[in-house]
Write the structure tokens for this entry.
Amino acid sequence: MVRHRWCQGVRVTLDPVLTQARSREVRSVVDTVVEWAAERAEVRGVLVVGSWARGTARMDSDVDVVVLTGNVHYSAAGVWTGLLGGEMVRSAEWGPLREIRVRRPSGLVVEIGVTPVSWADTDPVDAGTHRVIDDGHRVVHDPAGVLARLSAACEPERRYPGLRP
């Protein structure tokens, strides 16, 4: 639902409409990360999560990308500022996941979550991982099928055998 407010007799949209230029930029960012990952055997998977994966993104939405790898050097901010352009605005640790937030010159914020492949373990699926997957995900690079197995393990019929959504 788009919210509005009146300012000096003019109706102002509070939820900016997603532009084609922003959508193209996000596709370019994801393509860049996938091409980078495809050149590195130690990157076992890449997925987009959150609003862009669900198809509910707005102009102020960040792009959330999870990178599965055992290479801790890929959690360095310089890897992502160099690849995507822009500046690091935040880094944080969320359990095994290292978050690097990069603001591109356009203002688009890309949140890269670098995490070990064990983040995608399916026996059992970690509760935090499950929440991320359930909130919306799109697998964009999965050379070994690790993310396909995770997606399947998080499907409702797998969690609740005998019940259909």
In short: The chain has one domain: 18-156. The mean pLDDT is 89. The helical segments are 20-38, 51-54, 77-84, 127-134, 146-153, 156-159. The beta strands are 4-7, 10-13, 43-49, 63-69, 87-94, 97-103, 109-115, 137-141.
